[in-house]
Amino acid sequence: MVGVSFSTRPLDLADLDAIEAIERASYPTPWSRPMFVSELAKPRSPSIAAVAPDGTLAGYLILSRYVDEWHVMNLAVGVAYRRRGIASAMLERLFEVTRDDVERGYTLEVRVSNLGAISLYEGFGFVRRGVRRSYYIDNREDALIMWKDAGGQEGAGTTELSG
Question: Domain containing 25 — which CATH number?
């Protein structure tokens, strides 16, 4: 897949079949279809799709807007598209579409064993803020709570969305 470029766009209900396929391949306890429908139905929560040139959904980022934060609820990249900068590009797009919201920070939970994801988030300025004990139901693994203050995206860097 070297040389393949990707684009981002809003995620929508037409993507559900592809979302579910990526979700099942990515997580031991995947979200249900109604969970995705519920999140995508929120009008003020802009979720992001990463799309290959052939129109294939390569990844997604589900975002929820709360009173004082943007919560990254779910981020996954299809197995065939991993390690190509897609997760980074979706995070950069997240910061672009929320740039004018200078009062709202960002949060997420990530498995304590997911060192690659933790490193990715730290590279974008997220810091460790706490632990949710036994958060994941499949194995009772703890979740690391990460936070990024509003504004200050200058540390995120720039990532080309190509393979």
Answer: 3.40.630.30
Please report whether residue 161 resides in a domain.
no
Interval 71-126: pLDDT, tens: 999 999 999 999 999 999 999 999 999 988 878 999 999 999 999 999 999 999 99
Is the residue at 163 inside a domain? no
Two tokens at 35? 């969970």
69 burial (CB, 10 Å; 0-12 / 13-18 / 19+) is middle
* Overall number of domains in the chain: 1
Catalytic residue selected from 106, 121, 122, 141 = 121
Among 81, 96, 109, 122, the one annotated catalytic: 109
| Whether 150 contacts 68, CB under 8 Å | no
Contacts of 36 by beta carbon, 8 Å cutoff, 6+ apart: 16, 19, 20, 23, 62
The residues that bridge with 61 in the sheet, in sequence order, are: 48, 75
Q: Is 27 annotated in the active site?
A: no
Residue 106 bears catalytic tag: no
